[in-house]
Amino acid sequence: MRRKAVALAAVALVMSLTAGCGSLQSSATEVGGERMTDDRPVRDGGTLTVALNADPDKLDPTLAQTLVGRTVFAGMCEKLYDIDEHGTVIPQLAAGLPKTSKDGRTVTFGLRKGLKFSDGTRLDANAAVTSLLRHRDLAGSARATELAPLARAEATGTYTVKLTLKQAYVPLTAVLADRSGMVMSPTALKKYGKNFTNHPSCVGPFKYVERVGGDRIVLAKDPNYYAADRVHLDKVIYKPIPDGNVRLANLRSGDIQVGDQMTPVDVRSALTEPGLQLFNSPSLGYQGIGLNVGNVKGLGEKPGRIDTPLAREPKVREAFELAIDRELINKVVFQGMYEPACGPVSPESAIAPGVKASACPERDVAKARRLLDEAGVKTPVRIELKVSTTPEHSRLGQVLQAMTKEAGFAVTLRPTEYATMLEETDSGDYDAFTSGWSGRLDPDGNIASFLQTRGAMNAYGLSDPAIDRLVERGRAEADPDERARIYEELTELATERRGLVYLYRQKNYVVTRKDVAGVRVYGDGLVRVTTAGYTR
Predict the structure, then answer these.
(1) Which of 4, 255, 338, 354 is the most buried if burial means most Cβ atoms within 10 Å?
(2) What is the DSSP string of 344-404?
(3) How far from each other are the two terminal CA atoms of the chain, in whole angstroms?
(4) Residue 255 and residue 46: Cα distance in Å, rounded?
(5) Among the listed residues 256, 263, 233, the one whose alpha carbon sits nearest the alpha carbon of residue 529
């Protein structure tokens, strides 16, 4: 009865919070199937304004960590490889797929000829090598874990690159289809160094013009782009608008034309609008609660001991998870339009068919209380949970607060602006925070940087030799069945250690005005605007 009572209380809480935020009458199935592309003919000219749900972090592919930043990069920084609407890796700046030696330790690829960066510098093998080594070696690089197996990179011809690896590295091509594969102008890197973030120069359909912090990022069509004839827009403006209701109001008014990462409540409301259209795709990522279990000196530093019940006692972390009802969260916070999740590997992953998904633990308040008793901790166990300042995360935080209270936790919510949250969690200044990842096609991209000891984005301070060994095995194993078994074991260990409590997997919902066409939305969650434009 107590479980039912708290569940009903949480439902009532969230229903009251969502009142007035749009119709809740349509069923989730009415959102329809996946629509990722729109190939209606468009005219040349015009400015497209894309609303993001947060202000991007650094516009430097080596240092950046956010999905909203990746969306901006999609407009101005192409990669060696990309993915298509089917989740297949395809060449972008590279001339073809890489060739790998029998032992898996030598990889070569060619580059497309005649390409220029936005500053007019020629793209060649030396430029690619410069960027790859910077991604691997620059202090604070968020790409360091992804490229740790890279022993040497060298130009063996004007347009040919040879990579020598410390070990076979199966995820490499998928890694080069993301920020590690973004090639930056060596001229700009030499001139600006770490200040490249304020003067980014890549190969892309649009080039950087200006950034006004918290207000806008402006890109303009790049005449140096090799496929400039396919680019119809004159400008793209990215505006951070954290509140989904405000993004939707701006779509209705025409002040913006694309709303990125729209919430389920806003999607339902948008479905009734004759002037709006919906794009959606499954996610490669996950969302959950990051727990500080050992981040005492900051990201990339040696993990240490944190003297809190949550960090010190595995049973307390298990109790925290058992206090949570994932199905209920999906129902009352996300209108049933996301999917409960309890692991890092998405069903859309490249090896997902071979990975047996484990059932998420059901909510068990009685067991959670027993675990707290066994751990010998004083109740209520006090936890400060950082949540981003969006209404959706506020609702999520309040539901988590209500659920965990029943099991013996006292959760205090601390709304935190997204960029500030990244800084504070990277430095270890937190107990728990709402943590998410847009996901990568290869499961290594969802695991290594976050769970490996001193991983480039392991803000949790998690350190487990067994996880480290499995990460290395997964990277080197070519057999798909054996890889699947390795990632099953990694998933089990990750859920047992609970540096991150996985909660749900969202869908990528993007709403645009109906006079906009040529937009692409794939499983990586990026809004691609290379071919976008207006139909009239």
Answers:
(1) 338
(2) S--TTSTTGGGSPPPPPPPP-HHHHHHHHHHHT--SSEEEEEEEESSHHHHHHHHHHHHHH
(3) 59
(4) 13
(5) 233
One-letter-per-residue 3-state SS of 518-535: CCEECCCCCEECCCCEEC
Amino acid identity of residue 17, one-letter, is L
The token pair at 520 is 């692409």
- pLDDT, residue 145, reads 95
pLDDT value of position 281: 86
With 0-12 CB in 10 A as exposed, 13-18 as middle and 19+ as buried, what is 129?
Answer: buried
What are the distances in angstroms from CA 415 to CA 68, 246, 391?
19, 18, 10
- Find out whether the peptide bond into 242 is cis, omega within 30 degrees of 0: no
Residue 501's nearest CA partner among 371, 410, 406, 385 is 385
Residue 81, beta-bridge partner list:
91
Q: What is the pTM of this model?
A: 0.85
**Rounded distance between C-alpha atoms, residue 391 and residue 36, angstroms:** 26
**Residue 73 in 3-state DSSP?**
helix
CA atoms within 13 A of residue 343's CA, in its CB half-sphere: 23
Torsion of CA 429, 430, 433, 435, to 10 degrees: 40
pLDDT at 36: 65
HSE toward the beta carbon, residue 44, CA cutoff 13 A: 5
Residues 6+ apart with CB under 8 A from 239: 49, 50, 51, 52, 215, 216, 256
What are the structure tokens assigned to 506, written together?
């969202």
| Under 8 Å between Cβ of 313 and 468 | no
Please say whether the beta carbons of 379 and 352 come within 8 A: no
Contact 183, 80 (CB under 8 A): yes
Show the CA angle centred on residue 533, arms to residues 529 and 536, nearest 5°.
165
- Whose tokens are 């004159």? That residue is 234
Strand pairing class (508-513; 432-437): unpaired
Q: How far is CA 15 from the centre of its chain?
A: 28
How many C-beta neighbours within 10 Å does residue 263 have?
30
Q: What tokens does 455 get?
A: 């991983």
Q: Give the pLDDT score at 524.
A: 87
pLDDT at residue 419, as a whole number: 86
Q: Do the bridges between strand 409-416 and strand 500-505 make them parallel or antiparallel, or are there none, so unpaired?
A: unpaired
pLDDT at 4: 42
Q: Which amino acid is at 20?
A: G
pLDDT of residue 35: 61
Cα-to-chain-centroid distance, residue 413: 23
Query: CA 185, CA 77: separation in Å to the nearest integer?
Result: 10
Output the six-digit token pair for 201: 């120069």
What residues form DSSP beta bridges with 512? 258, 277
User: Which residues of the chain, if any, have pLDDT below 50?
Assistant: 1-33
